[in-house]
Structure formats: C-alpha cells, structure tokens
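User: Here's a chain of 246 residues. Predict its fold as tokens.
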Amino acid sequence: MLLRRVKREALKLAGGLKLVDFGFALPYTWVLAQGSEGKALGVAMTLPEEVQRYTSSISEPSLEAFIERADSLNVIERTLGLAAINAVSQYYIDLSGAEWVDVLDLIPENAGNIAMIGNMPPLVRELREKGHRVYVFERNAKLWDRDTYSDALEYHLLPEMDAVIASASCLVNGTIDMLLDRAKKARLFVLTGPTGQLLPEFLRGSGVTHLASMKVVDLEKALLGLKLGSFRGFEEGNRKYVVEVG
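Assistant: Prediction complete.
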C-alpha cells in the first residue's frame, strides 16, 4: 500500500518538527509545522461526501499522531494525516530542479488517450481544445457533466490510457494503488493539486512520474484563505510547480 510506505518515510523526518496549528476544514484540511528553518504549511483536499460519523482516536494532536493515521479507514484521520505529511514534505522539499509551470506543459502533442481522475473543467477544456482524447472520471456525482464517466469505470478503461492526470485527492479516498496498478501502460502519471505536496522521493518506483502542486510563498495570505474557506484566497498565496519523481 503506497500510503503506508509514504507514512513510514514521513515519520522518519517528522521528529525535528513541531505541530503549530491545524484545522479540518473546507475546502482544504491544513497542518502548520515549524522547525529551526521556519514554518511549513501542508494541505489535503477535504472530501465531505466521504465523511461519516466520526470519533477521533487522537487524544494528543501532534505531527506524529496525525501521520500515524494517514492510512486510517477513518477519512478525517486520513485527511489530517496527509496534510501533516505534506507539511513535513514542504519543510524539506528542494525545488531547485522544479519547473514553475502548469501541469498542461507536461502533455506532449501526441499524448494519445488521456485519463483525468477527478473532473477539473479548466484542464479538460484546454486539453480538448488542443485536440487530445480525454476521458474524465469522477466519484462525486455533483461534479458530473455529460462527458464525465463514473469512477467505477476506471478499472476497465485505465489500461487503455497513455497518460493519467490524477487529482492527488486519490490519496485521500484510497484509490491511488488501484489507479497505478490499472494504468501501467501510461508513460505519464501526474498527481496534481495542493494535496500533491509530497516529497518526490516518497513516491519513487511507484509509477507516479510527476507531482504538479503548489508551494506556499505567502504563508499569512495562504493561511488566512484556508481559515476563511477560500480556494482563491489560499491559492493566491501559492506558486504552481512541477517536479519529476524520478
């Protein structure tokens, strides 16, 4: 299980950091960590449609306590765990080799069949305008349109895909292992969105080829956006980057 492996690696780095603040919230759950070099903010997409009645098993919040539950069956614990892993990752990540570009810049002209895991209309529209064959899969029926497939069809169609752009929320809903297993033909497998703030080395050898995420460049603005429940407010404090997993 990929998430279990990521959890083990994150725990090795978490000891030098302390938990400053956190919030399970919409649109993103967030964790703020601090070390000798400053603060780092990690987020994970909150999936309200996945949330059931919740009893926390965490009595004393800490980075380690959150990360330990990153592979929990409880989606709230799992979301907090991923946000904590991302906070640790963003503290240690080296983006000197990153490209400060959009995920679309990774897609070659002859990409073939492209799977979009999670309906991201602006990306889908741009890819189709460029003439690409795009198959959009979405779990949340509220986000469907006439060209969207249920995520139940991922199992059957992913083996035919040449490239996959997956919302990193697939880490939150626990489908990442199935996606990677079924998309083995894909030459490109990108995890995209703020939830993909992971250290690239956590994913080496997994089948993920790139991470397309966001680096916080204005901590106060990003944190205020999160506390106000604002997509735009959070994203205004960030800068998009793409990094190869290797």
